[in-house]
What we know:
Blueprint: H1 3-6, H2 13-33, H3 39-56, H4 66-77, E1 88-92, E2 100-103, E3 107-111, H5 112-117, H6 121-136, H7 139-147, H8 149-153, H9 162-173, H10 178-194, H11 199-211, H12 215-224, H13 229-241
Parallel strand pairs: 1-3
Antiparallel strand pairs: 2-3
Helix pairs in contact: 3-9, 4-6, 6-10, 6-11, 10-13, 11-13
Bound molecules: zinc ion (ZN).
Amino acid sequence: MYVGVVAQCNPNDQVESWYDWFKDMQNQTIEMYGKPLTVAQENQVGDSIHLQLINETPLIGEHAKQRHINQMVKRISQYVERKEVRYQIHVLADRSTLNAFSIAGGHVYITEKMLEWVENDDELAFIIAHEIAHIDRKHGARKVQTSELAAALIGQYDPSFAGLASQAVLVATAPFGQIDEYEADKWGAVLANKAGFNPRKGLRFFQKMGEKEQYSMYEKIIRTHPYSVERINCLDDFLRNELGL
Ligand SMILES: [Zn+2]
């Protein structure tokens, strides 16, 4: 079945069972053909990719909001399922792109521009929780596993091994599929909600971004997290029906 058809998220039994079926198939395929990673290996792969990534885009070591977002990550990650993953958030020295993304091994990234652009903690928590949800549900790890980079990266912790590492950055930062985005939307909303933030304000943020037509800035986050009208509607339904928000 075409993924676009599966990727609907109304809380309706039939669609939900398709969704579960698709995720099961994906997990089975990885077990059969991929290279399952232990959490220690996932952290190692993530750290290796992280070193290469910050080589390309430097981090702001002492951003004014660093402590604040560290606390936010701590607060949200209390509710994750994979508690052995070390969650860390990094501020990328990029004042022109509105973006946030995550890679395997607990690394979450947000640009300076994004930190300036969000108007309140609910919006920020929504973005961070969405990224944490991608990691908690192994979306980042899965990208690495299916690319067969994992085996090469484990034991190749040397960041000077640039060819492989830059290839790994491309794989790790490539957009997630729609199914993963729906899952991260829902699970991220649950995590943000449990941590005491209002995910509905987070959803409004994405609607607001679209309305403001800041297309060049909107573009990158659209590319890494394509927000369609259906996706906004799905999350809206989920917040109302499942979380009572
Ligand atoms: Zn996403």
